[in-house]
Amino acid sequence: MKILLQASRIIVGVLFIFSGLIKANDPAGLSYKMQEFFEVWGLHGLNDYTLAFSILMIGFEIIAGIAVLIGWQFNFFSWMLLLLIIFFTFLTGYALLSGKIRECGCFGDCIKLTAGQSFIKDLILLALILILFVNRKKIIPFHGSRIPMLLLILTSVLAFVFQFYVLTYLPVVDCLPYKVGSNIPEKMKIPAGSLPDSTVINYVYKKGGAEVEFDADHFPADFNDSLYQFVKRYDKLVRAGNAQPPIKDFVIIAPSGTDTTMAILQQSGFQLIVFSKTAPKDVNDWTWMPVLKSIQLAAKEKQLPLVWVSADAENTAKSLSKLKVDDIPVMRGDLVAIKTAARVDPTIYLLKDGTIQGKWSYARFDEVLPFLAN
Fold first, then answer.
1. Which of 8, 62, 196, 325 would you call most buried, defined as having the most Cβ atoms within 10 angstroms of its Cβ?
2. Sheet with 198-207, edge to edge strand ranges
3. What do you get for the CA distance between the two ends of the chain, in Å?
4. Residue 7: which region, alpha, beta or left (left: phi > 0; alpha: psi -120 to 50)?
């Protein structure tokens, strides 16, 4: 039993640290995954708080993992871990059984797990945490009081500082399809050999005041127009496929409403694209604008196209006009695609023949200029 207890303690601690560190590389990604759950549940009012939830949850995962390994305040953390894994198991179970969410984001975008894989992982973790919880009084803490406390404080500081860093400068490890070196038009294609979703057509009819449902191969023996009143037909998912391109819903719409996506991406040579989700409430918040103006002037000298793609194109154009920047074309893009392309708002891309040569958050806009000087 002692060996099982210690093995459970090591596995749980390491897994929580590992999971937390991977998600700490991209807390915005976890935030968007939370929003996906809240949208499904109709809890739209919580969307504004998901980033704070994400940062706190990631920090707790890392801190709890360290605490389990050193045995610090084990009674408290065993309760917290049990409640957390029950919550995670509910989420992954809901995603699996409802079919409304394909991936749960347990290990971020670097290690993608299906809803089924995540659910099995959480069931195993639940069993291990239950072992720790039942035997929590048998866990002997690390000797001394200062070292564990200092280790927990250091872990807490590093966990939150690292998240602040990537939320300012972009993820350190880019696991997204928009990483440097990716060709966007190629990533928009369905990979060869992919399997499409398997579906069947289901019919819903009303008979005697009650709705009955059946597919094309199982029509009722007494079916006729006098007994059955048509309600609707729909495609029912039988088996989920993997025929999804790495980059989805990437569109660039001109102010005229014309889809200019491929016209822009298939341009030869270098070009710059600024991605932003929203326009600022106050144009003075764009403290990086002087650097962007320098980039704009350097791009003009090199005759490089520069466009701005925003999910809120109209208000973004108005903000630029207030700043006397009227010669950057502002296009409209899909919000979800921009959230993936620009984890930090805004982010600027340098493309060559549709391939990403570099990407920088607003905090590193000054690093674009050396590229343009060559």
1. 62
2. 210-215, 198-207, 229-239
3. 65
4. alpha
How many residues make up the chain in this entry? 374
Domain count, the chain: 3
268 with 325, same domain: the answer is yes
pLDDT per position as a tens digit, 339-370: 999 999 999 999 999 999 999 999 999 999 99
Question: Whose CA is closest to 160, among 27, 351, 357, 19?
Answer: 27
32 and 92 in contact (C-beta within 8 Å)?
Answer: no
C-alpha distance from residue 117 to each of 102, 112, 254 (Å): 11, 9, 41
| Boundaries of domain holding 158 | 2-169
Residue 74 pLDDT = 85
* pLDDT > 90? residue 193: no
Sorted by sequence, the CB contacts under 8 Å of residue 367 that are 6+ apart come out as 360
Shared domain for 155 and 8, answered yes or no, is yes
Residue 319 has pLDDT above 70, yes or no: yes
Q: What angle do CA 370, 372, 373 make, to 5 degrees?
A: 65
Per-residue model confidence (pLDDT) at position 227: 83
Which one has a higher pLDDT value, 141 or 205?
205
Residue 312 counted as domain residue: yes
Do both 333 and 203 map to the same domain? no
Q: Decide if 16 is inside a domain.
A: yes
Please, which pLDDT band fits residue 237 given cuts at 50, 70 and 90? low
The residue among 30, 92, 17 whose CA lies nearest residue 60 is 17
Question: 114 and 67, same structural domain?
Answer: yes
Phi, psi of 256 (to 5 degrees): -75, -10
Contact assessment for residue 21 and residue 110, using Cβ atoms and an 8 Å cutoff: no
215 in the Ramachandran plot: left (φ > 0), alpha (ψ -120 to 50) or beta? beta
The answer on 109 and 12 residing in a single domain is yes
